[in-house]
């Protein structure tokens, strides 16, 4: 592995920006960062198991709970419908649902169009 000096954009082909999303601060202070690659790339995310964690982690975990609630209410709800409800891209919603599957909280039976969700308690 080669260590590259510099910030998050030191690696060629990446851009980053900070913005005020209102997740942690309501006064316009920057509380969200976005990193973008010029080309498709592999990404990963992690959650802490600590009792104390940052506001963006809490926000993401709340969305997971709300997604599970929607799946319980409508077992045929699609990723596209969930994306519209939560104002997320399909890619982001797939990531959230993949996390729920990996954690053993939900299973999909059948195809994306005609399948159903099973929420595991």
How does this structure look, described?
The structure is a single chain. This protein has 121 residues and is α+β, with helices and mostly antiparallel strands. Helix content is 33%, strand content 17%. It contains 3 helices and 4 strands. The protein has helices at residues 55-73, 79-86, 90-102; strands at 14-19, 32-37, 106-109, 116-119. A two-stranded antiparallel sheet has the order 1-2. A hairpin with a 6-residue loop joins strand 3 (106-109) and strand 4 (116-119). Helix 2 (79-86) packs across helix 3. The longest helix is centred in the middle third of the chain and has 19 residues, at 55-73. The protein is globular. The termini are far apart. The model has no long low-confidence stretch (mean pLDDT 85).
List the helices and strands and how they pair.
Layout: E1 14-19, E2 32-37, H1 55-73, H2 79-86, H3 90-102, E3 106-109, E4 116-119
Antiparallel strand pairs: 1-2, 3-4
Helix pairs in contact: 2-3
């Amino acid at each position: 592995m080669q260590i590259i000096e510099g910030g998050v954009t030191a690696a060629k082909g990446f851009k980053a920006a900070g913005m005020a999303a209102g997740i942690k601060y309501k006064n316009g202070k920057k509380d969200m960062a976005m990193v973008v690659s010029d080309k498709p790339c592999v990404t990963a995310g992690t959650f802490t198991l600590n009792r104390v964690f940052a506001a963006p982690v809490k926000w993401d975990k709340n969305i997971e709970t709300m997604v599970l609630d929607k799946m319980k209410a409508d077992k045929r709800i699609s990723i596209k419908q969930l994306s519209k409800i939560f104002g997320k891209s399909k890619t982001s919603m797939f990531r959230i649902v993949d996390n729920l599957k990996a954690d053993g909280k939900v299973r999909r039976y059948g195809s994306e169009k005609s399948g159903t969700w099973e929420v595991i308690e």
